[in-house]
Specification:
The protein has 240 residues and is mainly β. It has two helices and 17 strands. The longest helix has 25 residues. The chain starts with a helix and ends with a helix. 33% of the residues are buried.
C-alpha cells in the first residue's frame, strides 16, 4: 500500500511539473520596451524636428518614460516596430501577441492617433487596427479591406491621467480566425460585438506596432504622449 501511495505521489508530481513546463513554454516575453534602454528599443523613429522622442524621468511617480512631443504644424511623432537583440523584430502570421503600455496625454481634445497596427508595405489593410483619441474618448477601430473604419470599443479619458492598455492580437489574414482582445486599466473590455473577443482580419503583408501621436486634425495642434511599461509577449500575463 505504501509503495502504491509513493508511486501515485510521484506520478502526480511529475504531471504537475509537465503542466508547469507546458504553461511556461506557451508564455514568452517578446520585447521589453523599458525607457531606460533609450529609443533604441524601437525599430525606428518617425519624428521630424521640431518634434521629439526622448526619455524623461520621474513623471507622476513613474520611473524613466518615453515622451513623444508633436507640436502644431507637424503631423506625426511616432515609433515604428521593435528592436530585439539589436535587430528589427518580425511579427509572424498565425501567432498570438499581447502588447502592453501605459499612456498619459497632455490633451484629449481634437482627433489624433496614439497607436497603430500598421501594414508594411501598404496592402489591402493600411492598418488593420488603430487607436485614436477624440474629444475626451479613446477609441479602438478595426479597419476592413475596403478601408471602412469600424468602431469596436471606446472609453472616456482625461488629460494628465495615466491609463493602462493590454491588447491581444491573433494574427490572421482571415476574419474567421483572427481576433482582438483588450484590457483597459486592468479590466477586460467588451467590444461592440457584445463579447470580449472581436473576430477580425488582423494581418496584411507584414505588420508592426506604432506608438506616439499622428494628428488627424487640420490645423494640427500640440500633443504630448508620455508612455511607460511598454511590453510585448505571447500571453496577457506577460504584459497585463
Amino acid at each position: 500500500m505504501r509503495a502504491t501511495v509513493r508511486r501515485s505521489t510521484a506520478v502526480a508530481a511529475a504531471l504537475a511539473c509537465l503542466l508547469v513546463s507546458a504553461t511556461s513554454a506557451r508564455a514568452e516575453t517578446v520585447w521589453d520596451g523599458d525607457a531606460a534602454g533609450g529609443t533604441g528599443v524601437f525599430g525606428s523613429v518617425e519624428c521630424a524636428e521640431p518634434g521629439s522622442l526622448v526619455t524623461a524621468a520621474n513623471q507622476d511617480g513613474h520611473g524613466t518614460i518615453f515622451r513623444f512631443t508633436k507640436p502644431g504644424g507637424l503631423i506625426r511623432c511616432e515609433s515604428r516596430g521593435l528592436s530585439v537583440g539589436g535587430a528589427r523584430y518580425a511579427f509572424a502570421l498565425g501567432s498570438t501577441y499581447w502588447l502592453g503600455w501605459e499612456s498619459q496625454l497632455s490633451t484629449v481634445s481634437g482627433d489624433f492617433v496614439v497607436w497603430q497596427w500598421k501594414s508594411y508595405p501598404n496592402a489591402a489593410q493600411n492598418y488593420p487596427l488603430i487607436m485614436t483619441v477624440k474629444d475626451g474618448s479613446v477609441r479602438l477601430f478595426h479597419v476592413s479591406t475596403d478601408a471602412t473604419w469600424h468602431l469596436i470599443w471606446s472609453a472616456p479619458v482625461s488629460a494628465g491621467a495615466w491609463n493602462r492598455f493590454a491588447l491581444g492580437i491573433h494574427t490572421s489574414a482571415s476574419a474567421e480566425s483572427g481576433w482582438v482582445e483588450l484590457s483597459f486599466n486592468g479590466t477586460r473590455q467588451t467590444f461592440s460585438s457584445g463579447g470580449s473577443r472581436y473576430a477580425a482580419r488582423t494581418w496584411d503583408s507584414a505588420n508592426e506596432p506604432k506608438w506616439g501621436v499622428y494628428d488627424r486634425d487640420t490645423p494640427q495642434s500640440d500633443v504630448v504622449n508620455r508612455l511607460d511599461r511598454l511590453r510585448v509577449g505571447t500571453t496577457y500575463a506577460d504584459v497585463g
